[in-house]
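One-letter codes give the sequence; the fold follows as tokens. Both lines appear below.
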Amino acid sequence: SSGINAEYGNPANKGKFITSGLWSISRHPNYFGEIILWYGLFIAAVPFFPSAWARLSVICPTLTAVLILKLSGVPMLEKSGMERWGKDPKYIAYLANTSCVIPCLGGSGDEKKSM
């Protein structure tokens, strides 16, 4: 087996944070994908809306993004990450060099080379 499954299943990696693959360019790539998915569905549906009022449904992906970015997803995981690895200089460097959600913004993608 290779990739993330091999890393996740390896007992030597228990309790460590992920810095390879998508996590080398975003600390929360799964949340980025979730937000893009919902906005993508909205954009794909726009041509089929029966009225201009239906475009107000943009509230749904926007609310999802706000919940993930500000209330439930990212803040909770960032807090638990700091509680778990906050004293680890490698984790502090990872936070400083890796974008929180949007891949590559604020991050170099080279974190695993320096760790």
User: Anything to note?
Assistant: The radius of gyration is 17 Å. Helices lie at 4-9, 29-45, 59-71, 73-85, 89-97, 111-114. Residues 29-45 form the longest helix (17 residues). The chain is about 55% helix and 0% strand.
